[in-house]
């Protein structure tokens, strides 16, 4: 499967995460003789959407991890390396160990970069003395240690000022913590604060109001325009920049536990490449047409997933709908046909609001609630918790990564539960 000798491929895929594996599997399913290499440095493939449940003690960490070699689709080559440089003018990518690989077509999907260092004191503080984050596989189990052993005090959850993957994850873990604190009899002695750098609890109307109600019912203090900028671990202090009409003011809040959703950005090697958008919301991201997923400058380059400029919420669910469009359009380009498949911005964030409760937030470029299920998607439902907890992980490993489509049209058994 790994082929270190060859230096030219018809298609090179940068990143073998959710997007890279899914799109490669779909391409090979349709054209098994394609010559494709996936460049991916990691030995492991992660099902990140379940890290929220790991942090909430409702999922085993080991069930979110598989060997990357077992995920690489049959027929694809795996180059175990990280890309350091993209030279689309020469149809070349350069690996960190200096190898130069050429291609006819390129798919860029190395995910989003987590910028822990942008919060002063955070990198050193993580994973001990009450500081955690589900955004890293190493710390999700520690989140559960903190939550289940919490004895009362200040529990703080944060949301940063940058785009992030799964924008619902920072609050989902807070709702699981709230329920665990209630169950363990410490909720009365606990103040839960959600420090949100932006002005809304969720970007999509309909789901936003539903979540405001959930937070209010749980007596969670939601503090808008509070941007975490420093952790003083020795004093257990979180420093926020608070924006008001009068300007920006710095405040310090004591914590007994803090779950941080860190700032994120496009990977540095994308930001500095000529594939990056130059201005506006695309700046730094792989600059693709939001419908066809083809690069706006280099027609033999495509992108999907978290590293792309696609103006939708960054989720694995979005990739489920992006991958078939990209595969179709790339094969059309290879066959000199028109690129007539379009992505409508579909994404989905299963908003876990408690154990056994989930709002299945689906929406697209219109920014309006949209459901695959024939019921009001803004309601908390047990059936959607079952989908999040059991159905989606199964479908991810067994259908999505294998290039099989799955549509929930016939999930009638879930109706109105
Ligand atoms: C806590 C948490 C909760 C989430 N919850 C949900 C959810 O409920 N529902 C949902 O749909 N999504 C959820 N997500 C988001 C989802 O996991 C991501 O949107 C999805 O994994 C993005 O896929 P991707 O392929 O773009 O990036 P990734 O899956 O992150 O893969 C990127 C790959 O690129 C590789 N790579 C990085 N740098 C390089 C390089 N230089 N060269 C080559 N390869 C490189 C990486 O090793 C990685 O394998 C969640 C994520 C987190 C962290």
Question: Would you spell out the secondary-structure blueprint of this structure?
Answer:
Layout: E1 8-14, H1 18-30, E2 36-39, E3 44-46, H2 51-55, E4 65-67, H3 68-71, E5 77-79, E6 83-87, E7 92-95, E8 100-108, E9 113-114, H4 122-125, E10 131-132, H5 140-148, E11 153-159, H6 169-183, E12 190-196, H7 207-217, E13 221-223, E14 226-232, E15 237-244, E16 247-254, E17 257-259, E18 264-265, H8 268-271, E19 301-303, H9 316-334, E20 347-354, E21 357-363, H10 382-400
Parallel strand pairs: 1-2, 1-8, 2-5, 8-19, 10-17, 11-12, 11-17, 12-13
Antiparallel strand pairs: 3-4, 6-7, 7-8, 9-18, 14-15, 15-16, 20-21
Helix pairs in contact: 1-9
The chain binds flavin-adenine dinucleotide.
Flavin-adenine dinucleotide is lined by residues 14-20, 39-42, 48-49, 51-52, 82-83, 109-111, 134-135, 165-166, 169, 267, 269, 305-307, 314-317, 319, 349-350.
Please give the domain count: 3
What is the CATH H-level superfamily of the largest domain? FAD/NAD(P)-binding domain
Proportion of residues in extended strands: 25-35%
Basic shape: globular
The major β-sheet equals:
7 strands, mixed
Q: What is the CATH C level class of the largest domain, in words? A: Alpha Beta
Structure summary, number of beta strands: 21
Count of helical regions: 10
Poorly predicted parts: none
Bound molecules: flavin-adenine dinucleotide
N- to C-terminal distance: 45 Å
As for the CATH topology of the largest domain, it is: FAD/NAD(P)-binding domain
Helix content: 10-25%
Structural class: alpha/beta
Rg is: 21 Å
Q: Mean pLDDT, as a whole number?
A: 95
